[in-house]
Structures are given as structure tokens and as C-alpha cells.
Amino acid sequence: MANPGFHGVFPYLVSPVDAAGEVMTDVLARLCEDLIAAGVHGLTPLGSTGEFAYLSWPQKQRVVETVVGAARGRVPVVAGVAATTVADAVQQARALERLGCDGVLAILEAYFPVPDEGVYAYFAAIAQAVSLPVVLYTNPNFQRSDLGLPVIERLSRLPNVGYIKDASFNTGRLLSIVNRVGDRMKVFAASAHIPACVMLIGGVGWMAGPACLAPRQSVALYDLCRRGAWGDAMALQRQLWDLNQAFARHNLAACIKGGLELQGYAVGAPLAPQAPLSAEGREEVRRALAAVGAL
Fold it and tell me: Known catalytic residues?
């Protein structure tokens, strides 16, 4: 049977860090083990939920080492690379490959706007630095410089750039990407999208923080979509959407960490200067989790 590549539900993992700045590896390993037992198809450390922008490089390495060790080859680990310079991004990508990751999620951080040629050069350099599959990450709501459709199409022609995770709110943009890249690149949704709708238009899954909190329900939704049981899929999707909406109203890492604390994972608070989840937000997340049977 041919290798289907990356597909399905990839939870964006939190980065549990204690007051002394040490990664709480036991908590993270336990979370990974439970997510794999719940049937997720992969694990993604150092995404947005993983607070990559707030971690030092040694902390990032420790997170990835822990996740790779916990996964033990049972599911692919696709870790985030995020930098403002090409040199730093290349160094990170090569280090992640040495640590045993199965793929890299490529993120561009920018203080000054970067023109299209610079954006292309950044992602192309990451792809050329490693032999791993590369997932492009695009989030026009937060990024200073984003991937436009012409750049995405050019990058899709590089041999190991096979995936894109789009975190815009625009499902029409996703369909435009699907139409533009054809079979060269597969599309993952984010929590900003309605995953069942993305699956309907040709997506292969989603990479998102909420799957950390409701992994079994997320996998059930994916399975329904794969079977084409769209009525049942939308019934489950409607239940899960309140969870996504809670994250839209509060800090993402705070919501996921707050929800995991409610589930018994002592992952700690978001890294400063981010604020922890408010009492109102905690109650909203609690209600959403209870409604889908995730408490």
C-alpha cells in the first residue's frame, strides 16, 4: 500500500514550562501518550499553541526531544521552524531533522514586511536544507509577511514542499490554493476553519490546538469525513464548533493550557507576558469541553 503521507488530526501541542523555565517533560510525554492512544495521526510541537515565539532555542529542543521520544515512531512528529532570518531557520530545520522529526512546519516571523521574493527565498531555503517533508504555515491574521497564492504555487513545485496549513478565516482562499497547486500540495485546516468543510473541498486533515483537548472527537470527525458521511460529520462538527469559538475569544495557548488543566494535565500557565485564562474564559472552556464529552 502506498504511503499516504501526512493526513488526519495533528494536535498542536502545548509547551509545559515551569516557573524556573524548565520544560516539564513528564507532563508533555504523558499528553503525547494519551493523544496517540486517542487515535491522532501525528503530533505538532512548536506551533502557535506551543508558544514558539516565547521559547528559547534550548527549550524548543527539549520540547521536540520529549515529543519524538514519546512518539517512538508510532505517529509522525512535525515540528515548527520559526525565524526572522534565513540562516536561523535553516539551522533550526537541520537541528530538527537530527533530533528525529518526520517533518517540519515552516513559519516566517517578520518585523519589517518582506516582499514576495524574500518570502519565497525563506521557505525555499528551509526546504533545501533538509530531506524532510515541509509543511508551509500561513496565517495572514497575525503574520507581518504572508504567503500569497503565486508564492505558494512556486513553492509547491519544490520536491519536498508537500503540504500547507492555512490559518486564515477564508475557506475560499483554501479552495483557491487547492485549485492552484493541484496534486502537488495537500491542504491542512486550522482551528479558524470549519474542518469538515475543508475536508469536503479536498483537505486532508487539520493541525490545531483544540485537538489536544478533544482528540477522540476530532478523530471521529475525521473518520466521518473520510467516509463521506457528511450529515453525521456536520452534526459532530456543530458540537465541536463551540470549542473552536472559545479559542477565538481568548488567548489560544491560555485556552488550551486552561482546558488541559481542567482535564488533569498540570501544564502550567502561558509564558509571560501572556496572561493566563480568565475565570470567565475558564468557565467557557469548561462548558465547551463538557458539551462534547471531553471532561
Answer: 137, 165
